[in-house]
Known about the structure:
By secondary structure, this protein is an alpha/beta fold. Helix content is 36%, strand content 15%.
Amino acid sequence: MNEDPAGRAELGKRSVRDLPVAEGDRVLVRVDFNVPLDDGRVTDDARIKAALPTIELLRDKGARLILCSHLGRPDGRDPETSLQPASDRLAELLEVPVHQAPDVVGPQVRSGAQRLEPGGVLVLENTRWERGETKNDPDLAKQLASVADAYVCDAFGSVHRAHASTAGVAELLPSAAGLLLEGEVTTLRGIIEAPERPLVVVLGGAKVTDKISLIDRFLDEADALLIGGAMCFSFFRAQDKPTGESLVEDEDVEQARKALEGAEDRHARLLLPLDLVAGTEFSADTEVTELDDTDVPEGLMGLDVGARTAEAYAKEIAAAGTVFWNGPMGAFELEPFAAGTRAVAEAVAEASGTTVVGGGDSASAMAEFGLADRVDHLSTGGGAALELLEGRELPGLEALDDA
Length: 403
């Protein structure tokens, strides 16, 4: 993976590189350790590894590190969502002891932070065990800030939320962006502000309404916008084409109709699938039907783009100066309907231009197909990446000290 892809934009916020940190200073670092667990073990440590450069930079300065993160969506204190497994994996990666606090805030957290030696690491418990976290409770933010001399945010996947451990605490301490956050923001902004042309954007997934703002923006900014996934059926329904039993919601059809009506006068070429692969039900065991076009008969549901579509999209990607991909082309978790997503993933991996994959299912697909290390930038944040590209403010980023 290229650690410095072309097309970076200005961060506008202080970087951890420029944060004054003396030996022994306590630095609260908001990381994204929202990782999958199985029987108390981390099954995918990509997000933990992504935080290592910032952690190691601060340890090299002699800082005492207090890390905080959420994991899952617990309703209060829930041992099943403890950060202990993430702490254990971090210790293995750093090859140093990592101390796990029993709470998010409180006396034991304060004493644990005080006992740290320079370069030591303490991980607080799941921030969402505290109900004030998602409400950006000022008291919780003050308690978090009380254990540190400075704050670094390196949790790109969480900066689109105004939580106590992101926006709240950043207002109370000298603050900076970590290396991961810095790289995410400058790379994704660069797609809009300074892309190598042509800019080809591939959007998939289920709902048009979830990505209509992104579609609208890229109709102006991109050179080609390729639509796949279940959202294509809303576009087909808007064109009065038969969609069979395919996933379509009325609100998505109206949004798709507006996008189609405005596309003719916009900069980007809007491309829809040319053919489809269908089944009678959402199952790997369903009877598979390859359709020559995009008309889905009654009793069938479209579950992947077809071979002609995959070839056409791959050619667009191959000719691109910059590629941004977010959202699978079909139900790639079902092997009979994985070919379209695999074709796009392989095209992105082989592209000569700058390639950026926008997290979520797309990142999972790249990993599943063994192609994750062949992308210039693989984003760690799905929702945050989309909101940034839409041009929306990210509260956890905006709260950091300006450069």
